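Ticket reopened. Same input as before:
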Amino acid sequence: MNDTIRRRHGGAASLALLLLLAWPAAPASSEGRVPVHARAGLDLSRAAATIWAPDAYLVYLENDEPLDSHGAAIRWGYLYYSPTLRKARVYSVRDGKILVAEDLGMKFEAPPIADGWIDSEAAYKAADEGPAREFVFAHDARLHTMLLLRGAIQENQPDRTTWMLVYTAPNFPSLFVVIDAADGTVLRTWRG
Amino acid sequence: MGHLSGCRAIMGLAALAVLVAGPVPARAQETEPVTVERLRPKHEKHATLRFLRENRDFIRARYDLLRQRAGGERGEAGEIDPRFLAYQEMLQDLFSAQGSVATQNDSLARRQLLASITELGSLEDQLDVMDSLLADQRTRLGVLQADFTGRQRTALIVVLSGYPSKAGVDRVTVTLEDGDTLTVPLTDPHRASLRKGGVVQIFHGFVEPREQVVEVAIIGERWPRGTKGFVTLDPARDRLTLLRLDLSSVGPEGGAASIQASKWLHDPRPYTGDD
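Engineering reply: fixed in the latest deploy. New output:
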């Protein structure tokens, strides 16, 4: 990674320092549950969100349980924002059911995620066939977090919806991979 | 909560609506009993959006930056839903077919005057045309119903039935999970209707398609304060769930938890006229 990128992502690198020590080291017991990709719970969460607020739109999603090796998880969290209510509400979906529905409890006015985003499987493949594979093999790393949002990560293209994948490795800085959610192009990587 | 407050107007009307109907609508799916518990059921807490919460300051700071760089793209008008245009075309087709029927009717009158037995056979053809028209109309109405009433969002109706013999009820309150409390006063006509086997609708509104606890309380002179019952429901997505609270066997000693509750799903199939 060159210095320019390192400087540009100095703030982002600090993310890694905050990274989720509370997460389980290995995937939680799935109890026979089948991991699914991110789009699996989208319709259900949207149906609930539009009842909460008719103008609600999706602004963010993230895996709520550990990911498997193909970008699937048994639970995903979907965050919606309502301009009318000026509130955000999260729906966490597992096994085709909403397991958690709660207001976010903090200000989060984010732009809507653009339609047509690639699913977590395709985003995973884009990273795995690109910069992540070497990191995973070299450092015994694993895919820790996948999140989808618009604008916040790709600062020079704020209209772009991106996946961000975070790979963690014991005793090594994490690898961040940003992928264009429209076509799967790897936009940037950094360590931190 | 937004969705509950948004339904207040409906609820207000609903509270006045005394439905003198049987406890289960004719087109309903199987009724199943629901347990009314004395204590609110406890559920395991599940963490969600951990990365966002852990890194919220960073992500929010990035969004704050975005707002300072607002773009100037112009909005564009959306396309008209092609279904709305299709409805009109379907109606026009039907009108033109109706013209054919009118012509057929004129022809029929003339032929009746002739009273020719050989022409009676053509009556069948004309009836076929009318049948076809009726079928087209039914199709059109089916499309309309499917597009509008068929696009049911997740909703809940709560009705009362029966009336306790041991103590009068002044009010019933319903509280949805994360929601406001709706208080429904029971008037004399309500009570009379309940005693005669009618039902009173006390709530009709949208609910999230997820497992949730509905709190019910009965308020009256002889009822202990704070007597509540808790019903766990999992309203089916995009369906209308009906919850009936039968008060007939309820008494102050058992409180709201002694309500006999049952639920069923409204049958969304378009009415065909064959039932």
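The beta strands of chain A are 57-63, 75-82, 87-94, 97-103, 142-150, 161-169, 172-180, 186-191. Confidence is low (pLDDT under 50) at residues 1-29 of chain A. Please confirm and we'll close it.
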